[in-house]
Each structure stands twice: as structure tokens, then as C-alpha cells.
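Propose amino acids for all 174 sites.
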């Protein structure tokens, strides 16, 4: 118990100095691509009730420089009414992130948790606007716990004997 409460000379917990200089700076956030495809309202079966909504996430990461990465978060929303697709909306938002004093282990978490947390609200806003402009109603997309998604991917990879999950392409969220 004494080891847990000991600190360094400045009073910070032991090990805190490793993380105090870690930095992530959002340099740029931008709309990379957006598309909306829908059937004409008269082509849809109005007696089918509410459509089934499916949300899929994908992520692509590219190293831009030694200390910078481009992260692109793609969110696709598909609405089906019976066998017919009512609409498909896909939005890609990108961000340029600069990092300092981030270890390889920390980088996996930063890229898969922190960066999507920055980008998802932009995707969500654009999707809402496009679907509304298309004449459809979509309840607000709820925030996504990217940390839980990342941990689940790690657990799935370990269960399958892969050791570590790939750094990209989070699973679908239904």
C-alpha cells in the first residue's frame, strides 16, 4: 500500500511523469467525402412501419510525418424497410493529428479511441443534415464508446489467437 501512495519529489504519483508530456494536437478536421442515396418516397412501402437502421464504422490511418497522422472515420447509415433499402448515407471525416511523447502502445489507444472521439461528432452532424435534407427522419445518433469498441476488438483478437487487433476498421454497430 505504501508504494501506491508514494510520489516523486514534486508530489506526483510514481509513473505520472511518463504521461505528463504526452500531447495530441488536432491540426485540421475536414469533410473528406459524403454521399446520400435514397429511393423516391412513392417507391417505399409506407405500411412497413419504421425502417431497420444499421450503423457501420470504418477507420483508416495514414502516417503523414514522423509526428503526424491522418485519421479518417467513415460512418455509414443504412435504412431498410423490409427487403428494400430506403436510404444509404455515408460520411467520411478526416483529421490531421500531431503527437508528441506518445509510445507505440499509447499510440494504438490514441488512434483507435481519442481520434475517433474527435471525429465522430462531425460525422454525426453531417449524417443528420443529409438524411433530413433527403426527407427522412433519423433519431439522433448516440455517442459511441470507442474505448469499449477497441477493448472488444482486442478481446476478440486474443480469443482468435491473433494476439493484437489490427489498428483499423472498428466493427459494425447495430
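Proposal:
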Amino acid at each position: 500500500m505504501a508504494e501506491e501512495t508514494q510520489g516523486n519529489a514534486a508530489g506526483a504519483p510514481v509513473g505520472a511523469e511518463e504521461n505528463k508530456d504526452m500531447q495530441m494536437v488536432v491540426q485540421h478536421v475536414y469533410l473528406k467525402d459524403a454521399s446520400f442515396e435514397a429511393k423516391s418516397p412513392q417507391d417505399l412501402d409506407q405500411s412497413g412501419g419504421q425502417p431497420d437502421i444499421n450503423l457501420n464504422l470504418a477507420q483508416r490511418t495514414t502516417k503523414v510525418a514522423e509526428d503526424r497522422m491522418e485519421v479518417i472515420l467513415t460512418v455509414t447509415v443504412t435504412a431498410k424497410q423490409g427487403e428494400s433499402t430506403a436510404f444509404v448515407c455515408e460520411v467520411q471525416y478526416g483529421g490531421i493529428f500531431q503527437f508528441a511523447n506518445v509510445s507505440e502502445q499509447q499510440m494504438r489507444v490514441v488512434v483507435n479511441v481519442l481520434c475517433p472521439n474527435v471525429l465522430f461528432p462531425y460525422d454525426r452532424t453531417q449524417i443528420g443534415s443529409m438524411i433530413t435534407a433527403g426527407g427522412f427522419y433519423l433519431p439522433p445518433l448516440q455517442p459511441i464508446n470507442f474505448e469499449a469498441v477497441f477493448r472488444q476488438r482486442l478481446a476478440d483478437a486474443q480469443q482468435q489467437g491473433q494476439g493484437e487487433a489490427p489498428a483499423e476498421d472498428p466493427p459494425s454497430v447495430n
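The domain at 20-159 is CATH 3.10.420.10 (Bacterial Protein-export protein SecB). The longest strand covers residues 84-100.
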